[in-house]
TrEMBL record:
Transmembrane segments: none annotated. It comes from Candidatus Fimimonas gallinarum. Keywords: Isomerase, tRNA processing. NCBIfam families: TruB. The active site is at residue 37. Residues 27-169 form the Pseudouridine synthase II N-terminal domain. InterPro entries: PsdUridine_synth_cat_dom_sf, PsdUridine_synth_N, tRNA_psdUridine_synth_TruB. This is tRNA pseudouridine synthase B. Belongs to the pseudouridine synthase TruB family. Type 1 subfamily. It holds the Pfam family TruB_N. GO terms for molecular function: RNA binding; tRNA pseudouridine(55) synthase activity. GO terms for biological process: mRNA pseudouridine synthesis; tRNA pseudouridine synthesis. Responsible for synthesis of pseudouridine from uracil-55 in the psi GC loop of transfer RNAs.
């Protein structure tokens, strides 16, 4: 059994909790495609069986979020679960809109100290919890869209964020506030979409438990935007045994088919077709 389950993660559950649920329901090894904090809810795609081979290819996809930022107060974790470490004013909507414009595009972002990034082989959040002053390096991320939607209440505003993988939404809250001369924290987060997996088609954990393999999406589901390349029938054995084949395309990845069968995802490696992700027989669940 190979494929994907689009899970609607509830607030309070960890990404590992979701994986365990899918694994028990489908009786197959599973792994999530990019983590989601326990305090957040929304789309968490889970790869099942040998579909986990596509992990590296799929974790780099664009993410969409509905974020709730509370201004005039911040915490050590930059979310509602941490201890208050600072207070300030609540900015005007005009200031927030201007800050959003400055944070749109390719930007340098400092991840939160309370994150799963590794520092000397130790998770940053573990060091932060033990009292260590964690200083993480800035890294380049892309914010494709950062839009103020509405004012939720006196100090809380709702934003839509479309961003690259690796973007920390808690850091976005901090950086918007900083540009406005104040402080903030992320008080809520919903992931609306991860790659092609959307919240409208996601299954709750209870639905996963009751429906089991009926929740399973085909292994090619997240590859719909990848072009196909059909090779001549006489190259079947060359593909099967990993022999060198001249690559018929220049750039990017292609779904490689031969004799009606999907072999995997390939790219051009100095003129040679390189099967980067081997997917043969994975559609036979």
């Amino acid at each position: 059994m190979n494929g994907f389950v689009n899970v609607l993660k509830p607030v309070g559950a960890t990404a590992s909790d979701v994986v365990v649920c899918v694994r028990h329901a489908l009786k197959e090894k599973s792994g999530h495609l990019g983590t989601l904090d326990p305090g957040a809810s929304g789309v968490l795609p889970v790869a099942v069986g040998k579909a986990t081979r596509l992990f590296d290819f799929l974790t780099d996809k664009v993410k969409y979020y509905r974020a709730f930022f509370t201004f005039g107060k911040t915490t050590d974790t930059l979310d509602s679960y941490g201890a208050v470490t600072g207070k300030g004013t609540v900015p005007a909507e005009e200031e927030l809109i201007a800050a959003c414009e400055k944070l749109t595009g390719a930007i340098w972002q400092t991840p939160p100290a309370y994150s799963a990034l590794s520092v000397g082989g130790v998770k940053a959040y573990k060091l932060a919890r033990s009292g260590v002053d964690v200083q993480l390096k800035q890294r380049k991320v892309t914010v494709f869209e950062l839009k103020l939607l509405r004012r939720q209440c006196e100090d809380t505003f709702v934003f839509d964020v479309k961003c690259s993988a690796g973007t920390y939404i808690r850091s976005v809250a901090r950086d918007i506030a900083s540009l406005c001369g104040t402080v903030a924290y992320m008080s809520g987060l919903i992931r609306l979409q991860s790659g092609c997996f959307t919240i409208e088609t996601a299954y709750t954990l209870d639905e996963v438990r009751s429906l089991g393999e009926k929740c399973l999406l085909d292994v090619t589901y997240p590859l719909s935007d990848v072009e196909s390349c059909v090779l001549p029938d006489n190259l079947y054995d060359d593909l099967d045994f990993g022999r060198k084949i001249a690559c018929p395309f220049e750039q990017g990845y292609r779904k490689i088919y031969c004799r009606g069968q999907l072999f995997g995802l390939a790219k051009n490696d100095n003129g040679i077709l390189k099967l980067q992700y081997y997917l043969k027989n994975l559609q036979e669940n």
